[in-house]
Write a structure and sequence with these properties.
Layout (H helix, E strand, L loop, with lengths): L1 H15 L5 E2 L3 E2 L11 E7 L6 E9 L15 E8 L6 H5 L13 E4 L23 H4 L19 E2 L5 E11 L4 E7 L8 E6 L6 H22 L1
Antiparallel strand pairs: 1-10, 2-3, 3-9, 4-8, 4-10, 5-7, 5-9, 6-8
Length: 230
């Protein structure tokens, strides 16, 4: 089961880094935003250079266990993700944006949780009961409202995706990248965006069931190759 889980994450990471996906470069905006405990850094990517239209956005944590907090707060902590044609220069400006209505934060997310740094909790913060879905009632990914604390109660408004975790957003419609800006919020302003990769693509990211079938096939292939070597 552990092998299959790892292969699902590996398969997802491989798919989102395929030739069809385009890496994006971010510029950090001045200041911070967020909830009452406001310490969310906002990063902007100008998607005009991508060309054409996009249907998915993927964030892959590459922190390797460095930076940030342990346990349920491991890995990249995402406050919000927004697409807009407004060009903001400050985090406060981005925090006040009403993004394009092309995100489905309930059924439009493909999530492969990463690992936790010890001491580990039952699941990552902002995830559903099984730890492999997003609880958007807690994460509120359409709004820059993250409470930048690891205190419970207190923490709210974000999701931690874990070390090497992957979260992908399948948009509800193709979006033209002309004059389009992508904004993401990093809770705590501790450099986790620099330890992650973000790509956009013209197609949808496969659902977990499809990836699970791929993982099973990969496990079977690995077993067959091991037997062949013997």
């Amino acid at each position: 089961m552990r092998i299959a889980h790892l292969l699902v994450g590996a398969a997802l990471a491989a798919l989102v880094h395929s030739a069809a996906a385009t890496p994006v470069t971010f510029t950090k905006l001045t200041g911070v935003t967020g909830g009452t405990l406001a310490a969310t850094a906002v990063y902007q990517a100008d998607l005009s250079g991508v060309g054409g239209s996009i249907l998915s956005i993927t964030i892959n944590d590459n922190s390797g266990g460095l930076g940030g907090s342990p346990g349920q707060f491991s890995g990249f902590d995402l406050d919000a993700i927004i697409l807009s044609t407004t060009n903001c220069a400050t985090a406060a400006c981005a925090g006040g944006l009403v993004g394009m209505s092309v995100f489905d934060f309930i059924s439009g997310i493909v999530f492969s949780p990463g690992t936790q740094r010890p001491p580990a909790d039952a699941k990552l913060f902002g995830t559903g009961p099984g730890g492999n879905t997003v609880d958007n009632a807690v994460a509120t990914l359409g709004v820059f409202d993250g409470e930048s604390t690891t205190a419970i109660p207190g923490a709210f408004g974000f999701i931690s995706i874990g070390d090497d975790g992957v979260i992908a957003f399948n948009l509800t419609a193709l979006v033209d990248t002309t004059g389009l800006f992508l904004y993401i919020g990093e809770v705590g302003d501790n450099g986790e965006v620099a330890a992650s990769s973000v790509t956009v693509g013209p197609g949808r990211v496969p659902e977990p069931a499809t990836l699970a079938l791929l993982a099973i096939a990969l496990v079977g292939l690995a077993v067959a190759l091991r037997r062949k070597k013997k």
